[in-house]
Specification:
Helices cover 12% and strands 39% of the residues. The protein is mainly beta. A six-stranded antiparallel sheet has the order 1-14-3-10-11-12, with no helix packed on it. The chain binds 2-acetamido-2-deoxy-beta-D-glucopyranose (5 copies). Keywords: Signal.
Length: 309
């Protein structure tokens, strides 16, 4: 009996601590800024946030002036460009010269622009780097983790950072204020909220799907919205168990066909573009899936053309 109660307690604890994940952007490429805002949302009572994802700085730009990677604010209207109003930088990632800059505000310190500088090397450009920047309310800290291609892991913890709640949030990606565009790209940028958003370790789980792997082959994910465990599959498999697959990332020109019997037999569903969530309806139709056909249309077209010649 006690075991059951303990189990229930653990389960409910796990449910309470569930993260709220917002997929902010699949992608950003230099010059294509965008913003997203939330008013009176599920985040009204939260102070724990994290933003993470892959970025690449293009070395062909001279970053002589401030440029915004992302800028997450809890201030509205003119206050969000008011450097004296606490809240205009909840989490931020800016770049200038060879400096990575993550400013935030702190009520405890009475400072609306608290930051530390980190530098990057020439070898850290033109390749994908990973960032995880977070604020924890009980830790009263901001933690920044970078995985840089040549410099490796670089972290920075700033203590005595306290934030306030807000009924308004906005993230600007690629540009904010009068700053310049971010000279490069973002991939799989995500914003999460909730008690587990803050962390100082365990970043690997957020890095498992690297951008450079993505364009070349389809990836089968165990969760919806390209979350969970990802398995990169470049070729058809006559006996692949995709029962646990709930979303599929397909690079351009790829199709994926799920079959309900081995060796590509039986009923099938063809996907010619990425699918965010494979629904119950699909499963009811297929019952169980035991094979997957991966086709690269470019190569198929090539083969067809060759045959014609
Ligand atoms: C996937 O993400 C989008 C955009 O953030 C959201 O609107 C949608 O509800 C999510 N779908 C699932 C099944 O989680
Ligand atoms: C900026 O914010 C501070 C602090 O909230 C406030 O005193 C000041 O009036 C604001 N300035 C403008 C121009 O709104
Ligand atoms: C951080 O970098 C910025 C931009 O280069 C610079 O203006 C500022 O003085 C630096 N701060 C410190 C403490 O080094
Ligand atoms: C396929 O995967 C599902 C979910 O992980 C599992 O329940 C099932 O037993 C697997 N089937 C086979 C044939 O391995
Ligand atoms: C997809 O195929 C089209 C036409 O065959 C081609 O022009 C395009 O470059 C391909 N895209 C990629 C990403 O391979």
């Amino acid at each position: 009996m006690r075991k059951i109660i303990l189990l229930l307690a653990i389960i409910s604890l796990a449910l309470c601590q569930e993260l709220i994940v917002e997929k902010v952007a699949g992608q950003y490429n230099s010059g294509q800024k965008f913003a997203k805002s939330w008013q009176n949302s599920q985040w009204n009572d939260y102070q724990d946030f994290a933003i993470y994802g892959w970025f690449k700085i293009d070395s062909s730009y001279q970053i002589a002036e401030w440029s915004t990677g992302f800028h997450f604010t809890s201030n509205q209207d003119k206050d969000w460009t008011n450097a004296s109003a606490p809240g205009d930088r909840v989490l931020a990632f800016w770049v200038i010269g060879n400096t990575l800059h993550n400013p935030t505000y702190s009520l405890a310190r009475g400072n609306t622009n608290y930051y530390e500088n980190l530098s990057f090397a020439a070898g850290d450009t033109n390749k994908w780097a990973f960032i995880y920047v977070t604020h924890g309310s009980s830790q009263q800290a901001q933690y920044v983790y970078y995985l840089l291609p040549s410099s490796g892991v670089v972290t920075k913890k700033i203590a005595s950072i306290t934030h306030k709640t807000s009924t308004f949030y906005q993230i600007n990606v690629g540009q904010s204020f009068s700053f310049k565009y971010f000279p490069g790209s973002f991939w799989r940028l995500s914003l999460i909220a909730g008690p587990n958003a803050y962390r100082e370790s365990g970043f690997e789980q957020f890095q498992n799907i690297q951008p450079d792997v993505v364009p070349s082959c389809p990836i089968l994910f165990t969760g919806c919205n390209y979350s969970g465990k990802g398995d990169s599959l470049c070729q058809s498999s006559p006996s692949y168990n995709v029962t646990a697959v709930h979303s599929i990332y397909l690079p351009a020109n790829f199709t994926a066909t799920l079959h309900d019997q081995a060796n590509y037999a039986g009923k099938k569903i063809v996907y010619s573009q990425s699918i965010e969530c494979i629904t119950q309806l699909n499963w009811a139709y297929l019952l169980s899936t035991h094979a997957i056909t991966i086709e690269d249309e470019t190569k198929t077209v090539l083969r067809r053309n060759n045959r014609r010649n």
